[in-house]
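Entry for the shared binder. Reason: the reviewer on the internal report wants the predicted structure included alongside the sequence.
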Amino acid sequence: SFTPLTSIPYSFKFTTSNVGEDCFVLGYPLISTMGKDIKLTNGIISSKSGYDGNVAQYQISAPVQPGNSGGPVFDKNGNIIGVVQAKHTQAENAGYAIKSSYIRNLVELLPTSINLPVRNLLAGKSLSQQVSLASKAVCIVIINDDRDEAISSVKSN
């Protein structure tokens, strides 16, 4: 019965992105020290596989912190290519995102039908315009005020 607060301005890209493609992450990292404003980081797709060779993930160079988990990873056209899952604590700027094709597979297994957005209003816009539009459809979910963690979440219909 969740009703989105805004229309979803982005769509999902289900084909695999290539190593070297730009990527952008929106989220709410470390809110106790960095505040509750949405943050943007950028990087590239470093690998088509994630932690320990996991083919369901990308490795990305965009810096991610606790609080970025669940946040969207966009390509330069404003398509969601993945969702941040983790970072490698023993490496600099090695984050992992679940590929959007695997997210679609999980959504299709749900007992209730969910229509993922298909209209991309971000394509052709500057990065700052994309962030302005997309940030209205990315929210922070605070799990516990006493901890320095939050989950950035991607809204879909």
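Summary line for the report: The CA atoms of residues 82 and 103 lie 8 Å apart.
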